[in-house]
Amino acid sequence: MTENHRAELAAFLRARRSRVQPADVGLPPDMEPGRRRTPGLRREEVAELAGVSLTWYTWLEQGRKIAASPQVVDALARALRLDTGQHRHLRRLAGLADPVAAPQPGEERARLQRLVDSMMPSPAGIHDGRFDFVVWNDAYARIRIDPAELAPERRNMVWMMFTDEVNRKAMRRWEPAARAVLSQFRAVVGRRPDDERLAALVAVLNEVSVEFRTWWSEYPVQEFRAATIGIDHPTAGALDLELFQLRLVENPDLLLVVQLPSTEDDRRRITAALA
Fold it and tell me: Which of 256, 255, 252 is nearest to 91 (CA)?
C-alpha cells in the first residue's frame, strides 16, 4: 500500500466515523449531553466495536504503515455501518480484494433475470464472484446447458466446464475454452485465498478432472480475452457464438456473460431451435 493509499484510507475512516452516531450502533447516549466533542463515534468506540486495539486503530487513522487483514477491515466496515459500495471502497483502499457479494435477494434476482431474458435469442447468464450461476435465460439453458439440471452446490461455470460431458462434446474446441475459464478462475482464487467455498471447489475438481489438476498446477492466470466459440447443437446445427463479459456497476462481483450469434444465419437457426 502506498503512502497516498494510506492517507486516503485514513481520511475515509475519519469521515465515516464522524457520520455514525452512538445510537446507530447500540451505544448508550452520553450521560452529559453536549459534552461530546467528537462528531459521531470516538476512536475508542470504533476500536471496541471492531475488536481491535485503540492504538492500532489510531495508527490506521493517522495513515501509518501498518497491515490490515481482510477480517479486520470487514469488522471495521460493520462497526462503521458501511453499505456495500462503501465496504468495497474500504477494502480497495486497504489493498484487498472486493468482498464476496451476499446472495441475491428475490427482487434483485428478478431484476437480473429480466436483464438476461431481454438478450434472447443470445444465450446469456450471470455468475457471481465464485463463478456460481445466478440467473440465465432460456437460450442459455437450451443452446448451451441448463444449470438447473446441476446439483445446487455444483451449479458453477468451472464445474460445468470440466465435468459435463454433453457440454464438452458440443464444443468444437473445448480445450482452449476450458483453459481460458480456468485461467480466470485461478486469478479469482489467488485474490481470495481464504474463501472456503472456492477452496472446496478446487479440491473436488482436482479429484475428478485430470485436465483441471494438471493445468491448475501450472498456475495459469489470464484476464478475459474476446473469443468466438463453436457449438454443435443437435437441433440448431453448427453455431458460432461471440463471447462478451460485462460487470454490473452496482455489484462488480456479478459477471454478465453474453454469447452473441456471430452471423444472422446463426441467429436465425437459434431462433428456430427455440421456437
Answer: 252
CA dist 229 and 116 (Å) reads: 19
Other CB atoms within a 10 A radius of the CB of residue 255 amount to 20
Element (H, E) at 125: strand 124-127
- At 125-160, the pLDDT tens digits run 999 999 999 999 999 999 999 999 999 999 999 999
- Quote the pLDDT of residue 70: 87
Number of helices and strands in the chain (H, E): 13, 5
pTM for the full predicted model: 0.76
Distance of alpha carbon 238 from alpha carbon 167, whole angstroms: 14
For helices 3-19 and 54-61, angle between their N-to-C axes, nearest 10 degrees: 110
CA 205 to chain CA centroid, Å, is: 20
Are the CB atoms for 114 and 84 separated by under 8 Å? no
